[in-house]
Sequence to fold (339 residues):
Amino acid sequence: MSTDIPDDLGVVIKKTNGIYTVYLNGHNLDCTLATRLRKEFVYEADNPHAGRQVVKAVKTSSHVDPVAVGERVQVRPADGRSGMIVSILPRRNRLARRTAVPMPSAHPFEQVIAANVDQVVPVFAAAQPPPKWNLLDRYLASAESLDLPALVCITKLDLVQDEGGQVEPELQAAAGVYRKIGYPVLFTSAASGEGLAELRQALQGQISVLVGKSGVGKTSLLNALQPGLGLRVSAVNPSTGKGKHTTSYAEMYLLDGGGGIIDTPGVREFGLWDLDTEDLAAFFPEMRPYVGKCRFGLDCQHDEEPGCAIRKAVMAGQVSPHRYQSYMRLKAEGYFYDH
Ligand code: GDP
Fold:
């Protein structure tokens, strides 16, 4: 990964208590952030995006951290082990979510989870806990909204294989739905090692973000992909099938052959909440060709309206009923809220 990065440019791989670990020229530096990078400008106008701006005041931002994992930064090294981040390069993209509001009257604010990502990798367990396809659809729509490719990873495959190694038909069928849309679906197991070579290859040279609830097997996958990472694996509660939170902040793990994996704390959704004006169907690739083709055109809610092209496609088997339901649910739930 370091090959395409100039000398004083590093990548933020971890944040803890105001200290940013920056990977620079093959070393990790513990960095602070230059104070001016923490300032927020307060403008005369109500709209900070308005044409001419007069800065009224400058205040220190307490709730928005301007630096995310994956950020490309310029560093002034102090010694071999520490330094200061003096500038942040423009982001190619960002994965963000709404954070809890500090007070009921306050507006929720955006928390950037990761910056400069190449692909999103939703991780689900084949069992314990069972896969939640609705949640996968949410992740995929988020990735689409950011124009990022997604690679679906199903792990703990060993739990649903028979003695001959055959995977249960329901899982095969579900994976088939996503493959047909164009999403690669990899079957893996950290326990048996199955599919790891393929996964490693798909991650090589890319900055990938793993998304998935705790307990699905992300840490075990990371450990199996790169022995030596030594990450802590949580025990799944046998009755609930849920794991304890072991990852409490985003962190990037660098892969030996280039590339990095960003592991995020149980992120349910990201990226979608600022898209309330768009037709969500555009983020379901198999529905995209029908957007605007309904009798009511772009006004169609794809629900009960006559002449809805998307519902027709569901009837004709071109869009899976399950994906259509996910779409309707995402729309109804208010996909821009973190809940
Ligand atoms: P994370 O919270 O997503 O990072 O999940 P962990 O990697 O901590 O794994 C949660 C639980 O699932 C642990 O008890 C692991 O031992 C178990 N587990 C993880 N991967 C596999 C697998 O491939 N097969 C089986 N049978 N169990 C697994």
Observations:
- Residues 155-156, 158-159, 189-191, 212, 214-220, 233-236, 243, 246 surround guanosine-5'-diphosphate (CB under 6 Å).
- Residues 9-90 form a domain with the OB fold (Dihydrolipoamide Acetyltransferase, E2P) fold (CATH 2.40.50.140).
- Residues 240-247 have pLDDT under 50 and may be disordered.
